[in-house]
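Entry 14. Ran structure prediction on the chain below.
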Amino acid sequence: MRILFIGGTGTISAAISRLLIEQGHELYLLNRATRNAALPEGAKFLVADINDEQKVAELISDLNFDCVADFIAYTPTDLERDYRLFKGKTKQFIFISSTSAYQKPLSNFRVTESTPLANPYWQYSRNKIACEDYLVKLYREEQFPITIVRPSYTYDERTVPLAVKGKNGSWQVIKRIIEGKPVIIHGDGTSLWTMTHNSDFAKGFVGLIGNIRALGEAIHITSDEVLTWNQIYQCFAQALNRPLKAVHVSSEFLAAAGPYDFQGGLLGDKAVSSVFDNTKLKQLVPEFKATKRFDQGIKETIEHILAHPELQRKDPEFDKWCDTIIDSMQQLAEKIKEKNILE
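Output, structure tokens:
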């Protein structure tokens, strides 16, 4: 098949790109060519900014595709552009949405594709919902051949998936564990979450490409493994061969404390227990099975990051913030304890 990815080098899309090339598909990547060197040989590159609509139209003027997937569309305006560019030029258009679009709080912790979409906490999620609404309307009224894919938290060898982190990513938390310092876990750490390795996600995604039964459908792709956040952080410590010194802090407190924005990504996503039912995906892609257990996958990730200093982005500001939050919680507990003793 001839396939075009808008993007194609991110955590999710890079794994899909590699798998498609291994399977012998004709893969085009439309991006600004800042990270293409990391991909295996075999992809064809269309170098352009997708927002330069005239240039993109010229690049694809003689091309038609079995599938186009946009990994970097975040608003309906982005999709309006895509519709102008690819109407009549593709047999399938895949939009990457997000499981964060599912209702918050959930009425049922077990999430299926029929779970309502509503997230009052996070503008990112509301934008994704608006994108889905726009595409469904195109499918119903114009027969534009859409498929909507909703990833949850997906990681690779370069990314440690965390809920509480600073502006420079996850390394500072890993560094704190290495140094024996306490780390913050939101809530009491018992909320349920699902982590998916990008190699597993790719298997599900590739099975939807060219799948006529996927047209007009929305499908989430996740692992079936469910962990508590306490277990997730314990896997980090185990991979580092260090003890975990966890300090549990209310998600609402973290969101209120600032300066980091935990309103959307925490209250509107990772603080909410979510167990994803992948029955629909397995009906569409019977061979799909997530095989990368989290403790094994994160061990590979941490080993890779430790071996690549360029991925170890220090964040002293976040480190100091963690110390402040933890010290404040401990001092407050001591004051309350002292007051109770005196009374």
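The chain has a mean pLDDT of 94. Will compare against last week's run tomorrow.
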